TrEMBL record, chain A:
It is found in: Cell membrane. It comes from the Bacteria. The chain crosses the membrane at residues 99-126, 147-166, 172-191, 236-258, 278-301. Coiled coil: none annotated. Belongs to the binding-protein-dependent transport system permease family. The keyword Transmembrane helix applies. Pfam families: BPD_transp_1, BPD_transp_1_N. One of its GO terms (cellular component) is plasma membrane. SUPFAM superfamilies: MetI-like. It is a multi-pass membrane protein. Residues 100-297 form the ABC transmembrane type-1 domain. This is ABC transporter permease. Keywords: Cell membrane, Membrane, Transmembrane, Transmembrane helix, Transport.
UniProtKB/TrEMBL annotation, chain B:
This is ABC transporter permease. Residues 1-21, 300-328 are annotated as: Disordered. It is found in: Cell membrane. CDD domains: TM_PBP2. Gene3D superfamilies: MetI-like. Residues 102-291 form the ABC transmembrane type-1 domain. GO terms for biological process: transmembrane transport. Belongs to the binding-protein-dependent transport system permease family. It comes from Nocardioides gansuensis. Keywords: Cell membrane, Membrane, Transmembrane, Transmembrane helix, Transport. The keyword Cell membrane applies. It comes from the Bacteria. InterPro entries: BP-dependent_transpt_permease (IPR050366), MetI-like (IPR000515), MetI-like_sf (IPR035906), OppC_N (IPR025966).
Length: 313, 328
């Protein structure tokens, strides 16, 4: 266990180092003088005085050796200080924090919705393996994982916001605004959760202790809930946290479509506007969280299921 | 007394096949044999994919209109004899644009998939074969990269290098090889422990020969299943990036870009905004059906071998929906 922790923290720090170097290099990559590009992003004016560019170069210390610049930048970055957004002139931290909480809300809503439907579907399919119900559920899950959310989303808007007028088409000012993006986002995880539940459940149902429980006189539903569910939930939970980590910054398309002020949309608009500090801060946060959440999941997995040792991971 | 039979051929390379080659089924034979005995959805997937590929290959000859020709007097027209699927906001024929756009979507997804599969298989096999620090390096890279959402990686690369086909393909490859490497490593470890590999080693076969003659061919079926499953995922991601205006750039257009163009006209002409998405959906569905059909056969076989094996041993879940669920 200790080895696992040591190894994983080593991996984590190397990853963070690599990501930080790449994020730091964003303004330097490509052609052109970084100071000129920063000014252009700030004032959105192609005609710049050379004196202005030179002044900014000196002000930001861009004439120093690049290593010195990197370590200075890193020193601030580890305290969470990525500077000010070029476009809104607010500190990156003040933009990122609310966006992250919005993304967490949306991701949890979508994934819980997916889970609520996936568990019964997966269990039903597992208990009727090879039957008509199983085939139908498998086909539904296959369709769900193949449905692009940027296709489902606009169609949902068309039907429920435009034609029926039941729900708002975009924005984030109340509980009603969560429904459509969460539904659109939940479809693909729903398919995967169903498949994993079915696979895990059918494996568990074939185990001898299920037969033992049944022969002790336990009814099938009770066996299912007490023995089956408990033992088959581990892979589903792993997948859940995997998707959760991914959706914190990866729900870009849905957040853009539904105008949800989350991490994905923040990062997307920053990339489009070349708002370097926001890109750097956002990327560092999203990728760190993704690795961290998955590491914790692996750890929990071994705690919850002692049969699987992490040392040979 | 001289022996009547010819002496066995002496060769420096005893592991090479001697004697007449045995009949090995070609791809077509195994495909025909493969469809039989599988679920009908597998056959449906094969038929759908074949239809898609046929139409996309023949597009230059069968597309009814030039996809770029505008007819502003006939904007957002509904389906008609002239324009089977109507026209878009610039009066361009939707069917022709779907056909030409599909060529971009499918080609980019195919290229990235090929790079991911080949590099993943090689790295996974290498990790299993070499063990030690190579294994450690590859698998730790997998652990980290597998958590990165494709779209975020793409945004990172676009911030660094700008948009373009190179960026697009790189973005889908950086994290995309990891499921293949993980799958291949597991399979290779299983295969490396087999008697025939030991026999080949005793015969003095070089490592590369064992890799290409024994390990990779025996790992192909699950790898093929995963390739199909990942192909659908790639199609969806390519479309997502194009939808954001960060993938295929104008004047080129793919299904995702067509969806983006159609957004302002969803209410007036819903088909313009629904058809390209339906194309992505159906194409992704076809490969998902194929992939899971292949996977299912493999699993039922494994289940039998597990049942006869040691009881209580946890079965490794490689190539299952869990790996495939790592699709963001």
């Amino acid at each position: 266990m200790l080895m696992f922790l040591l190894r994983r923290s080593l991996v984590l720090s190397v990853t963070l180092l690599v990501i930080s170097v790449l994020a730091f290099l964003i303004p330097y990559a490509g052609e052109g003088d970084p100071a000129r590009k920063i000014l252009q992003a700030r004032v959105n004016d192609p005609g710049l005085e050379p004196a202005q560019v030179e002044a900014l170069t000196r002000e930001l210390g861009l004439d120093r050796p690049i290593f010195v610049q990197y370590f200075d930048w890193l020193k601030q970055a580890v305290t969470g200080d990525f500077g000010f957004s070029y476009t809104s002139r607010t500190p990156v931290g003040e933009l990122v924090t609310p966006a992250l909480s919005v993304s967490i809300t949306l991701a949890l809503a979508a994934l819980l919705l997916a889970l609520v439907f996936a568990l019964p579907l997966g269990i039903a399919a597992a208990t009727r393996r090879g039957g008509r119900l199983d085939n139908a559920i498998t086909f539904i899950s296959q369709s769900a994982v193949s449905a692009p959310e940027y296709w489902v989303g606009p169609v949902l808007v068309l039907v429920f916001a435009r034609y029926l007028g039941w729900l708002p088409s975009g924005g984030w000012t109340g509980p009603a605004f969560i429904v459509l993006p969460a539904v659109a986002l939940s479809l693909r995880p729903l398919g995967y959760f169903t498949q994993v539940t079915r696979a895990a459940m059918s494996e568990v149902l074939a185990a001898p202790y299920i037969t033992a429980a049944r022969s002790r006189g336990l009814s099938f539903p009770v066996t299912l809930l007490r023995h089956g569910l408990r033992n088959s939930m581990l892979p589903v939970m792993t997948l859940f946290s995997f998707w959760f980590a991914g959706l914190l910054g990866g729900a870009v398309v849905i957040e853009v479509i539904f105008n949800v002020p989350g991490m994905g949309r923040l990062l997307y608009t920053a990339v489009v506007n070349n708002d370097v500090p926001v890109i750097q801060g956002g990327l560092m946060l999203i990728l760190t969280l993704a690795v961290l959440i998955n590491t914790v999941t692996d750890l929990l997995y071994s705690v919850l299921n002692p049969a699987i040792k992490v040392t040979n991971a | 007394m001289p022996s009547l039979t010819a002496p066995p051929p002496t060769t420096r390379e005893p592991w090479r096949r001697v004697g007449p080659p045995s009949h090995r089924p070609n791809i077509f034979e195994s495909l025909v044999r493969g469809i039989g005995g599988r679920h009908w959805t597998f056959a449906l997937g094969v038929a759908m994919l074949a239809l898609f590929l046929l139409v996309l290959v023949l597009t230059p000859w069968i597309a009814p209109h030039d996809p770029a020709i505008q007819d502003l007097g006939n904007r957002l027209a509904g389906p008609s004899a002239e324009h089977w699927l109507g026209t878009d906001h610039m009066g361009r024929d939707v069917l022709s644009r779907l056909m030409w756009g599909g060529r971009f979507s499918v080609t980019i997804a195919g290229i990235t998939l090929a790079i991911c599969a080949v590099s993943g298989v090689i790295l996974g096999a290498l990790a299993a074969r070499r063990g030690g620090w190579v294994d450690e390096l590859v698998m730790r890279a997998v652990d980290v990269l597998v958590c990165f959402p494709d779209v975020v990686v793409a945004l990172f690369l676009i911030a660094l290098f700008g948009t373009g086909y190179g960026t697009l393909i790189a973005a889908l490859t950086i994290a995309g090889w990891t499921p293949f490497a993980r799958l291949m490593r597991g399979l290779a470890l299983e295969i490396n422990a087999k008697d025939y590999v030991e026999a080949a080693e005793v015969l003095g076969s070089p490592k590369w020969f064992i890799l290409f003659r024994h390990v990779i061919p025996n790992a192909l079926p699950p790898v093929a299943a995963m390739s199909f499953l990942r192909f659908g995922h790639k199609l969806i991601t390519v479309g997502a990036l194009s939808y954001l205006g960060l993938g295929v750039q104008p004047p080129d257009s793919d299904w995702g870009a067509m969806l983006l163009d159609a957004q302002p006209y969803m209410e007036r002409a819903p088909w313009v905004g629904i058809l390209p998405g339906a194309a992505i959906f159906l194409a992704a569905l076809s490969v998902t059906l194929i992939g899971q059909g292949l996977d299912k056969k493999k699993k039922s076989r494994r289940r039998r071998s597990v049942a006869s094996g040691a009881p209580g041993a946890p079965t490794p879940v490689h190539g299952s929906a869990l790996d495939e669920g790592e699709a963001l």
